[in-house]
TrEMBL record:
<comment type="similarity">
    <text>Belongs to the SLX9 family.</text>
</comment>
<dbReference type="Pfam" id="PF15341">
    <property type="entry name" value="SLX9"/>
</dbReference>
<dbReference type="GO" id="GO:0000462">
    <property type="term" value="P:maturation of SSU-rRNA from tricistronic rRNA transcript (SSU-rRNA, 5.8S rRNA, LSU-rRNA)"/>
</dbReference>
<dbReference type="GO" id="GO:0005730">
    <property type="term" value="C:nucleolus"/>
</dbReference>
<keyword id="KW-0539">Nucleus</keyword>
<dbReference type="GO" id="GO:0030688">
    <property type="term" value="C:preribosome, small subunit precursor"/>
</dbReference>
<dbReference type="GO" id="GO:0030686">
    <property type="term" value="C:90S preribosome"/>
</dbReference>
<dbReference type="InterPro" id="IPR028160">
    <property type="entry name" value="Slx9-like"/>
</dbReference>
<protein>
    <recommendedName>
        <fullName>Ribosome biogenesis protein SLX9</fullName>
    </recommendedName>
</protein>
């Protein structure tokens, strides 16, 4: 069979194997430590990137500087139709019915100027109400109705 090695040589070989294993495990340990360090660094950089993205998407400062939405939505002015004969006829009919309703109203029949004054006060906003415009309206309507 084979020659057996002396005990000293066998223990030296075992020591050499053991040292190689220890070196291998220390290398593995160092590699794992460096990978975990790199992983933590990448986690930090990813977190920083996410934070920057969130700051980019944060529009609170922008919304503070913009005007309110209610101020932007002003009532739209009605579009003016072309006044052809058909539209003119409709307008004349509508206005004549309105005038007939106003002249038949009991408040207007009792005191037309007061009725016009009350109508203007209720329809015009206070900041647009000017006493001089009332006088002008009374003058126009008064001359129209013979007052």
């Amino acid at each position: 069979m084979g020659k057996s090695r002396p005990r000293e040589e066998a223990s030296a070989r075992a020591n050499h194997k053991f040292e190689k294993k220890v070196q291998f495990y220390t290398k593995v340990k160092d590699t794992v430590a460096s990978l975990s360090a790199q992983k933590s660094i990448t986690k930090k950089t990813k977190a920083q990137r996410r934070k920057k993205k969130l700051q980019a998407y944060d529009l609170s400062r922008l919304s503070e500087s913009l005007p309110e939405l209610n101020a932007l939505h002003q009532p739209k002015k009605p579009t003016e139709l072309k006044l052809n004969s058909k539209n003119r006829q409709k307008l004349v009919l509508k206005e004549s019915k309105q005038l007939q309703a106003v002249t038949n109203h009991p408040a207007f029949q009792s005191n037309p100027l007061e009725a016009i004054f009350q109508h203007l006060q209720s329809t015009l906003p206070p900041d647009e109400w000017v006493h001089g415009s009332f006088v002008l309206v009374v003058f126009i309507f008064g001359s129209f109705f013979g007052y």
